[in-house]
Amino acid sequence: MISFTVAGSLICTPLMIPASAQAGTLPAVAPAQDPEEPALTEAKKLYKEGEIQFQTAEYEEALVLWKRAFGMLPEGDETRGIRHALVYNIAEAHRRAYEVSRNPTHLRKAKILLDNYRADHRALYGDEPEAVKERSEVDDRIAELDKIIAESEAAGETATPIADGGGGAGTVTPPPDGSQPPQPHPQPEPQPAPKPLTPQQQWEAEVKADPTLGPMWVQSNKRIVGGAVLSGIGIPFTLVSILLFISAPSAVVFPGAVWAGGVATGVIGLGLLIPGGMLLGKGIAQRKEVTTAKPKPIGRVIPVMLPSGGGVGYTLRF
């Protein structure tokens, strides 16, 4: 029998790993033990590596190694105690990993593992005083986890998935030569299908793409907008000027000031209206030139007469 110890922060369980027995002739010089099964040898190696990671607070790495060791141990009476003790160590690594990452998923996994550990403990070790004491300590640890989980929920901590390090889905096992395994390439997110353009939008897109009509269309829009702004500001000044001229003859106090105000506002109003009107005229003329060269699609509702009756139809001109 070959032994090694799986140690958690609370329980240290000596584990007995049976050696494989092989028949054969032994050398005459001295008796020798049969070689250990490769799976057990690799499991011991992984456990020791995980123990180093655990002792140096690399709990995520310890989880990966201990889960791999657990997966390598075959099921059976000879390895049941080893697998059972590893469950406790993995649960403890999850609890410690939460202290680093604050990911509540570690706490919930630790609680599930400890519940499973306690359920199997009695079947393995019975009701001996030492076994009962160990289960009591596990109960205390589960109660402590429940308290930490409640505090985590109250703090609003968000649980995120944890990559399975035990050979399950999402695990990339490093090659034996120590080289880095190929990393999966991220898949691009599918782009939503573009919405179909309306006839008016299609016409505008074609006009803007035209090297001649495109600049004319843009310039005409700018002139129309600029002319509308200037005219909109000039009209109030012009109206004020007209009102002042009308009221000036009957003004009792400072009639000269009223005349001067009318002249000033009139000059400002005309100074805005004249260029505004010119811009509007040029913009409208340019826009008409573009629509003449490339007519807009026009939809119309027209009456339709059929042998069986009548109705209306919709026509679209391109």
TrEMBL record:
InterPro entries: TPR_rpt
Membrane-crossing segments per the record: 224-246, 258-280
Bias (Pro residues) ranges: 173-197
Superkingdom of this protein's organism: Bacteria
Cleavable signal peptide: 1-23
Keywords: Membrane, Signal, TPR repeat, Transmembrane, Transmembrane helix
TPR repeats: 43-76
Coiled coil, from the record: none
Record has Cytoplasm as a keyword: no
Protein name (record): Uncharacterized protein
Source species of the chain: Enhygromyxa salina
Lineage: Bacteria, Pseudomonadati, Myxococcota, Polyangia, Nannocystales
